[in-house]
Automatic annotation (TrEMBL):
Keywords: NAD, Oxidoreductase. It is an enzyme of class 1 (oxidoreductase). NAD(+) binds at G8, S9, G10, V11, M12, G13, D31, E91, K96, S118, N142, K272. This is 3-hydroxybutyryl-CoA dehydrogenase. Residues 185-280 form the 3-hydroxyacyl-CoA dehydrogenase C-terminal domain. Belongs to the 3-hydroxyacyl-CoA dehydrogenase family. It comes from Neobacillus bataviensis LMG 21833. Coiled coil: none annotated.
Length: 282
C-alpha cells in the first residue's frame, strides 16, 4: 500500500491527506475545484510549518511530507494507480454513489475504495461498484492529525482482507481502530448526534446558556469539548445532514432540533461561517 488518493479537499479530506503524507504514503488530493485545492494546500503547508515551529515535527520530516502530496482536479490521474482511495465529500448519498461509480471504472482491481462517511451505509455505497468486497467505511475524526480513532465499518460484502488492510493503514497513520458492524450512525456519530441534539433542545428551551451547557458537559462529565462547541467545529450544515439521515433511518429520537434547522437556514454554520452557537468573527 504505497499510494493513497483522497477525494474531496474540505476539512476532512485535507486532514486525511496531511496525516497520510506524514505516514509516508504517496498522496494525491483530488477535488473538482482548483480553488478548494489551493486552500487545502495552504492549510497543509501552514499547519505543518506551525507544528515544526512548536517542535512537534522535524523540519526535514515536514519537507519530505510536503513533497509526497500532489494536488489535482483530474480524478482519473489521481486514482488511476492508487492502492487506496478515501472519499471525503459531503454526506449526501447521491454524491458518494456517483464518485464510487467513477472510481470503479478508473481504479485497478486491487484498489480499496473507502468512504469517510460518519453515518451512511458502506453496503449501499459499495453496491454502486463491481467490487463491493473491496469497499469499506473508514470514519476519521476532526482534526484528523490530532484525533486518535478511526471507526472501520464493513459492508455486507466487505472481505476480511479489506478489513485487515484498512486496519493496517490505520496503524501506519498512527491511529487506533475499532471495527463496527454496519448500522446507521455506527457508534460515535449515533451517540454524538443524540447528545448534541439534546444540548440544542435545552438551549432552545432556555434551560441554560450555550456556554453553561458546554461547561457542564466538560467539567461534570469530563468531555474534552462541549456538544455545542463540537457542533460548531463540525459545521451545523453537516450536523443537520447527519441528523436528517439518522431521523430517516432510526426514527423519532433523532428528529433534528428546530433551532439547528433555523441556524442553518440563516447561514450560521459554525466556525467556517464565523457564527454558530458561538461568534467566531472576533
Amino acid at each position: 500500500m504505497e499510494k493513497l488518493t483522497v477525494v474531496g479537499s474540505g476539512v476532512m479530506g485535507r486532514g486525511i491527506a496531511y496525516t497520510a503524507a506524514l505516514g509516508e504514503f504517496r498522496v494525491c488530493l483530488n477535488d473538482v475545484s482548483q480553488e478548494n485545492l489551493d486552500k487545502a494546500k495552504l492549510y497543509i503547508e501552514t499547519e505543518m510549518t506551525k507544528s515544526a515551529d512548536k517542535g512537534f515535527l522535524k523540519r526535514e520530516q515536514v519537507a519530505a511530507a510536503l513533497q509526497r502530496i500532489e494536488y489535482t482536479t483530474d480524478l482519473e490521474a489521481a486514482a488511476g494507480d492508487a492502492d487506496m482511495v478515501i472519499e471525503a465529500v459531503f454526506e449526501l448519498m447521491e454524491i458518494k454513489a456517483d464518485i464510487f461509480k467513477k472510481l470503479d471504472k478508473i481504479c485497478p482491481e486491487h484498489t480499496i475504495l473507502a468512504t469517510n462517511t460518519s453515518t451512511m451505509s458502506p453496503t449501499e455505497i459499495g453496491a454502486q461498484t463491481s467490487r463491493p468486497e473491496n469497499c469499506i467505511a473508514m470514519h476519521f475524526f476532526n482534526p484528523v492529525h490530532k484525533m486518535k480513532l478511526i471507526e472501520i465499518i464493513r459492508g455486507l460484502e466487505t472481505s476480511d482482507e479489506t478489513v485487515a488492510k484498512a486496519k493496517e493503514i490505520g496503524k501506519k497513520l498512527g491511529k487506533e481502530t475499532v471495527e463496527v458492524n454496519e448500522f446507521p450512525g455506527f457508534v460515535t456519530s449515533r451517540m454524538n448526534c443524540l447528545i448534541g441534539n439534546e444540548a440544542m433542545n435545552m438551549l432552545m428551551e432556555g434551560v441554560a446558556s450555550a456556554e453553561d451547557i458546554d461547561k457542564a458537559m466538560k467539567l461534570g462529565l469530563n468531555h474534552p469539548m462541549g456538544p455545542l462547541e463540537l457542533a460548531d467545529l463540525v459545521g451545523l450544515d453537516s450536523r443537520l445532514r447527519n441528523m436528517e439521515y439518522l431521523y430517516k433511518t432510526l426514527g423519532e429520537k433523532y428528529r433534528p432540533c428546530p433551532l439547528l434547522i433555523k441556524y442553518v437556514k440563516a447561514g450560521r454554520l459554525g466556525r467556517k461561517s464565523g457564527q454558530g452557537f458561538y461568534n467566531y468573527q472576533k
